[in-house]
Design brief:
This protein is mainly beta.
Length: about 550
């Protein structure tokens, strides 16, 4: 698995090119105001931009009174002007030179506070200040990020899972065959992860002059692609958990998951509820106190049913998978986050092939009956009783629940649920025409349809302050991209922010791109970094775009 790009010193020539690029991008975004004025004068968007003046004037977001360890709930309000200005422009320089022009690096995790944008790239977390795009901190985790949660506390903390550090060849021998127990691992981790024994061990190995070392040197010299693991070598287990302050990058505590040697990056997820961080993998689950990282409970030897994932937020749900093959069944349970005890259980009907937790509050469960895609969405009430079914005919709606690049649950990027309503985006009939459909969760029936009208395909992002925020791509590459605000009651559409997504960022698609709205700003970030296409390109990888209103 790819490691994150190492920190590096840039030559003066590279910095000069970078500064020139930033100036071009700033001029491009500044010129967006003129472009918008021309479009408005043409009459096409005049009514759209003028709608709902009552929203304008409330810059950014309204703070919600919450406890520091509660899951953040920001009520977004429209900026006084919808014309976007550059807030963050993050590019990973010399990416092609270090990793190869066709290489990609995993970039799971995009978070923002009122001060900082944070990105996870490989095994590194990076924080960027608004206005300058300056990297204000960088935290090396010791292993690649393998699990994140979108949840953030009211005081700006989140949890990150990462893989075990890669050991040097002779590390085990130097321990004289002694292995630390899990309790010792936990104690050491809470004080801070141990730095890998880097150069001295490597120098001793080089003196041996093995053919394996010579081959390794050849691979390292191959067009700067860096070190590669053997194709048949198993990926390190996803067993390290840290709570991170997003404004400073500081790891507040770190632990090693108990009895989690089989916790793979594809079967492990992390989530949070108030005061509690929880992790689930195929054969276990564990919870930690958010304040100091003390273990609250663990279930690492389930007798009958394994763990398929945990969904957090204001409540905590767990998905249990029981049996195998044709006899496989699923259960959804609400847990007490401090004890792990089940408060209620809902048994999914037999014959279902796959199940996914879309949301914890309201409880929404995606099921696949016939194949790999979602066939139905099941809504449950606060006591775990069946509430309604939303049918998803094959090919009608965007369905990315079972194709997520990272995580096992809470990954349906194109589905938004709140207490009484659920929003789905239809698959575009042509690249720019689709709709968002709202459903009543009490009945499962359609309530309203929001048409894109050929102005660019759109999909829902979040419900905030009673209004749905949705991303709309540019229909022709001339009109701006946008985040729009949709009124679920009247169907009225209002611009939230207008901007231009750089070509290097790639197409904005659910499941492939993080689109985050926080504090009145919009952030666009690809989930995998790739070098800019084209022979004349500088070989940088686009990391994130952030825009804010006037």
């Amino acid at each position: 698995m790819s490691q994150g790009p190492p920190r590096s010193q840039f030559t003066q020539s590279v910095l000069a090119v970078d500064n020139a690029r930033k100036q071009r991008r700033t001029r491009m975004l500044a010129g967006l105001a003129g472009l918008l004025a021309l479009v408005l004068c043409a009459g096409g968007w005049m009514l759209w931009a003028a709608a709902d003046d009552s929203e304008a004037g409330d810059q950014g977001a309204k703070a919600v009174q919450q406890a520091p360890d509660a899951i953040r709930n920001t009520v977004e309000t429209a900026p006084s002007s919808p014309v976007g200005h550059l807030a963050v422009d993050y590019q990973e320089k010399r990416f092609a030179q270090r990793f190869g022009r066709d290489a990609s690096v995993r970039a799971p995790g995009t978070w923002a506070t009122d001060k900082t944008l944070v990105r996870g790239v490989g095994g590194t977390l990076k924080g960027f200040a608004f206005g300058t795009s300056k990297e204000v901190w960088s935290t090396e985790l010791g292993g690649p990020v393998c699990g994140t949660t979108r949840h953030v506390t009211a005081d700006g903390r989140t949890a990150v899972l990462f893989q075990e550090p890669v050991k040097a060849p002779d590390d085990d021998k130097k321990k004289d065959g002694k292995k630390d127990g899990k309790k010792k691992d936990d104690e050491k981790d809470k004080k801070g992860s141990k730095k890998p024994k880097g150069k001295k061990d490597d120098d001793k190995n080089k003196k041996k002059g093995s053919k394996k070392d010579d081959k390794k040197k050849d691979r390292d010299k191959d067009k700067g692609k860096g070190k590669k693991d053997r194709a048949d070598a198993p990926a390190p287990a996803c067993t390290r958990l840290a709570l991170v302050d997003l404004d400073t990058g500081k790891k507040l505590w770190q632990v090693t998951l108990p009895d989690a040697e089989d916790a793979s990056p594809t079967s492990t997820n992390v989530t949070m509820t108030r005061g509690t961080v929880t992790v689930a993998w195929s054969r276990g689950s564990v919870a930690y106190d958010m304040k100091g990282g003390e273990r609250l409970w663990q279930d690492t030897r389930p007798s009958v049913c394994g763990n398929a994932g945990l969904a957090g937020g204001n409540v905590l749900l767990v998905l249990r998978e029981c049996g195998a093959g044709a006899d496989r069944t699923y259960r959804v349970q609400r847990l007490d986050p401090r004890t792990g005890k089940a408060l209620w259980t809902y048994g999914v009907a037999s014959g279902v092939q796959r199940v996914h937790l879309v949301s914890s509050e309201p409880a929404v469960v995606a099921v696949a009956v016939r194949g790999t895609g979602v066939d139905k969405l099941l809504a449950l009430d606060d006591l775990g009783a069946y509430r309604s079914t939303v049918d998803m005919p094959e090919g009608r709606y965007i369905d990315d629940c079972f194709t997520a690049r990272f995580g096992t649950v809470e990954t349906c990027d194109a589905i938004v649920a709140e207490r009484d309503r659920l929003f789905l985006a239809t698959k575009p009939k042509d690249p720019e025409v689709n709709r968002i459909v709202s459903f009543d969760l009490a009945t499962g029936k359609v309530v309203r349809k929001f048409e894109s009208r050929g102005r660019g395909a759109m999909y829902p992002l979040e419900l905030s302050g009673g209004r749905l925020l949705a991303f709309r791509g540019s229909a022709d590459g001339v009109a701006p991209d946008a985040v729009v605000s949709l009124d679920p009651e009247s169907g009225r559409e209002t611009p939230f922010l207008l901007f231009s997504v750089p070509e290097g960022a790639g197409p904005v698609k659910p499941g492939e791109t993080d689109v985050l709205v926080e504090g009145g700003r919009v952030f666009i970030a690809p989930k995998e970094l790739r070098a800019e296409p084209g022979e004349r390109a500088e070989g940088a990888a686009y990391g994130a775009l952030g825009v804010e209103g006037a």
